[in-house]
């Protein structure tokens, strides 16, 4: 033990500090197991415990036959809802694409589900309809530089989506927000609700999350001028690939 703590934790602390300080940049190869054993005069099992601890924190990637590397984790900053619609209108692209491109990353997506489905229990209150009532769903896996980043599931009431391209299996290059506005609807108010938790097995598999990396689930709900729900998004964000930005101005403060 070192300084009253197991040596494996001391090794992990030294490596963690070098990663978080930037001394070991993303993509850097870590010392090999043999090198750690020699440097700390320890055993194979102790070195393995130290590496396993950092891997559980989402700091490392192990590649078979190549070694263990500092995980590449370039974040994408998601802007607040107040700016989201303005940005998609100016770019003519989905907001995910707009934010990624603005921040030097390449967006792509893989469609997972499109069609009509019974409303899930947790989405029904946001949609202002009964659980089980039919809605249109578009579910996709969104990627940054080829790496999974968000599982996006959007629900649309039939009075908005029935018979429109929201039901089409084809991509929406302008994004659903732009399409909804082109159908004559107007976004007047929105709500965003965040929940941080550990991923389900399916979420971890789709997002390729290392052990220990959490997700942030966001409900994003848009309403029209009559208070009707236009769309509800349930987005599952890889916790180590995103940061969330909110801005306010004097005009937002009600006196």
Q: What is the structure about, briefly put?
A:
With 255 residues, the chain is of the alpha+beta class. The protein contains nine helices and ten strands.
Protein traits:
255 residues, alpha+beta, six-stranded antiparallel β-sheet, two-stranded antiparallel sheet, 9 helices, 30% helix, 30% strand, elongated
Structural write-up:
By secondary structure, the protein is of the alpha+beta class. Helix content is 30%, strand content 30%. The strands form 3 sheets. A 6-stranded antiparallel beta sheet has the order 4-5-6-9-8-7. The protein has a two-stranded antiparallel ribbon with strand order 1-2. Strands 3-10 form a two-stranded parallel sheet. A hairpin with a 3-residue loop joins β1 and β2.
Number of helices: 9
| Largest beta-sheet characterization | 6 strands, antiparallel
Shape: elongated
Strand portion: 25-35%
Detail the topology: elements first, then pairings.
Blueprint: H1 7-20, H2 33-40, H3 44-56, E1 60-63, E2 67-70, E3 76-79, H4 81-91, H5 95-102, E4 107-118, H6 124-127, E5 134-144, E6 147-156, H7 158-161, H8 176-182, E7 189-197, H9 201-207, E8 215-223, E9 229-238, E10 242-245
Parallel strand pairs: 3-10
Antiparallel strand pairs: 1-2, 4-5, 5-6, 6-9, 7-8, 8-9
Helix pairs in contact: 1-3, 2-3
